[in-house]
Design a protein that fits this description.
There is one protein chain. Helix 12 links the parallel strand 19 and strand 20. It contains 18 helices and 23 strands. With 592 residues, the chain is of the alpha+beta class. About 4% of the residues have low confidence. The radius of gyration is 25 Å and the shape is globular. 33% of the residues lie in helices and 20% in strands.
């Protein structure tokens, strides 16, 4: 799950203006929750010259607290925030991406393609376009560029772009929302035919040219609201919009709408509560989730058990709204029993269970007075691996809780997410092959209560302008995805997830070695490397082929030789983008 932006100003005559970059930079902070792994901005100035600044890290780090914005002149641009998915997290995969042919295209993508391997083969064998990263975003960009190149024109128009998008849609399968920019021409945005990933567009009067209008696209409406954009509308499933410099937006249904099924995880967890997605208020949907979860608690536990609950405590912050409405419905006191440290990353994306457990303690602290000798009802938005919840239950007991009941605003997560959120592999999910009683024992709670899938869908659908028959992408809860998906894709997903996990585990082992805390397991991983089995599990490569560090491979030469032979590429820790001059990789300048 990523955050994307696209902006074109009405005033295109000031060649030195950095207003576009300044607004895009501000918008990154409103969408920072959508991606903390990497970010970037690309702008276009007069003459079609493209400027970029991107890299790994949060917006404040990559843009040096905003000082890099002055290096990004132009009247239009794109912004991107990357959320770590199952692929690589190298700097080379920070977006926006760029291809110089045809016409100079930059591209920001949110989502996932489930036929990426087929597209990679097509680009190699038929389109003859080189792909330099493991990102399916680069694949989609090159599919679009190749279709646009088929026009054979020196200059293209909107009709050419719409037709190229239509052909691209015929080749790509998955869920996506994208913004793109053609050098000197304008920007465009488009959304998958199922409406899985969100994208909105708004307008505002130009502040520098009377009668002109600025247009902006974003993953969430909050970014537009905060920057003064009005008339905000959703780009529809299968729809594209093109905004040429100096012109009003052109909307086109480039392919038929197959479904209107936004990912329900946006409402459960990912989106900000002050956002409206596809006409549904995220805040109100979470209120509804709390009301319906309260009713489920009474039905499951009985009124007598519910009366024993002394207080309702949210696990901050996404569940705050739902916990408050649950408390209201049950007439049980609501209290903030946990204090959240806002300067720690989300834990379910961290490598290794041990790292996640330690991070929970850094992220949350309990207020003992709210737990001592009480039966507490903890409310969370979802339960993924169970690692975080188990640690939180333990913290509640250490703070003096008599009994701990855990309630989840979403159903058990039993399947992989295939549209851009790397939650976990199926085997790592706590609900995989466990019922709720087994899960309660696993995390150390007296009871675990889940929202039903029907109630979760109803909590959101009741607010939909399309009525209560509104459908959602809910594959993580039931295995029924809105797009066709083959068994081979799940195997591919587990493999690349394992490779990514392997790299993080080895890096963590090296960090422990440098600080003097590495044990025998970490030393073996460093000396012998790691291998990924067919289920995506990572283990030391000790004694593989009868040759290990103990047999003289102390510097890992044989391991690296095997990796080069199997992949054709020497393993590296990081890579940088090669397409454009990147201000983020420059040394600091005097004015900083």
């Amino acid at each position: 799950m990523c955050g994307i932006l696209g902006l074109i100003l009405g005033d295109i005559d000031d060649p030195t203006s950095t207003t576009a970059a300044a607004d895009l930079h501000d918008a990154l902070y409103y969408l920072q929750h959508r991606g903390q792994d990497a970010c970037g901005i690309a702008t276009c100035a007069s003459g079609g010259r493209i400027y970029q600044c991107k890299g790994n890290g949060m917006a404040a780090k990559v843009f040096h607290d905003g000082s890099r914005v002055q290096d990004l002149p132009g009247f239009m641009g794109l912004g991107h925030l990357r959320y770590p998915t199952a692929g690589s997290s190298a700097s080379a995969e920070a977006q926006p991406f760029y291809v110089n042919s045809p016409y100079g295209i930059t591209f920001a993508h949110n989502g996932n393609l489930i036929n990426a391997e087929d597209l990679r083969r097509y680009l190699d064998r038929e389109a003859h376009r080189h792909i330099n990263t493991d990102s399916d975003s680069e694949l989609m960009l090159n599919i679009f560029a190749n279709e646009l190149n088929e026009t054979g024109k020196a200059r293209v128009n909107s009709e050419d772009l719409f037709n190229s998008l239509e052909r691209m849609y015929g080749k790509c399968v998955g869920g996506w929302a994208c913004t793109a920019m053609l050098a000197g021409f304008g920007i465009l945005g488009f959304r998958d035919p199922y409406g899985i990933r969100p994208l909105v567009i708004g307008s505002r009067p130009s502040s520098t040219m009377h009668g002109a209008t600025d247009y902006m696209m974003a993953s969430e409406s909050v970014a537009l609201d905060q920057l003064g954009f009005k008339n905000i509308v959703d780009i529809l499933p299968g729809q594209a919009v093109i905004i040429r410099k100096g012109f009003a937006p052109e909307f086109r249904q480039v392919v038929p709408q197959i479904a209107y099924s936004p990912d329900i995880f946006e409402y459960v967890y990912f989106a900000r509560p002050d956002t409206i997605i596809d006409g549904i208020s995220v805040y109100q949907s979470r209120q509804n989730m709390g009301y319906k979860l309260a009713d489920t608690l009474v039905r499951t536990l009985g009124e007598d058990v519910v009366k024993e609950i002394d207080c309702v405590i949210p696990i901050p912050e996404t569940s705050n709204t739902s916990a408050a409405s649950l408390s209201e419905r049950l007439k049980i006191p609501f209290c903030q029993g946990f204090v959240r440290n806002r300067y720690v990353f989300r834990t379910f994306i961290m490598p290794g269970q041990g790292s996640r457990q330690k991070s929970v303690r850094r992220k949350l602290s309990a207020i003992p007075s709210e737990f001592k000798d009480k039966t507490v009802l903890l409310v969370d938005d979802s339960i993924v691996r169970g690692t975080t919840c188990r640690e939180i239950v333990s913290m509640a007991r250490e703070a003096g809780a008599k009994k701990v009941i855990l309630a989840s605003c979403s159903p058990p997560i039993t399947h992989a997410h295939i549209y851009g959120i790397d939650l976990a592999s199926s085997q790592e999910l706590v609900a995989h092959n466990r019922d709720r009683l087994m899960i309660a024992r696993h995390i150390g709670a007296e009871e675990v209560i889940y929202q039903s899938l029907e109630d979760l869908k109803a909590a959101c659908a009741e607010l939909s302008p399309r009525g209560p028959t509104q459908e959602f992408e809910v594959g993580v809860f039931c295995g029924k995805y809105v797009t066709p998906v083959s068994d081979e894709y799940f195997q591919h997903l587990e493999k690349i997830r394992g490779e990514n996990k392997k790299a993080k585990i080895v890096e963590a082992a090296k960090a422990l070695l440098l600080t003097g805390h590495a044990g025998e397991k970490e030393i073996n991983l460093i000396k012998d490397g790691a291998t990924v089995d067919e289920n995506g599990q990572v283990a030391s490569e000790t004694n593989r082929n009868g040759y290990s560090a103990a047999n003289g491979d102390l510097n890992g030469h044989m391991r690296r030789k095997r990796e080069r032979e199997s992949s054709g590429t020497p393993p590296v820790r990081d890579r940088h983008d090669i397409s454009l001059h990147n201000y983020a990789t420059e040394p600091p300048r005097g004015y900083e």
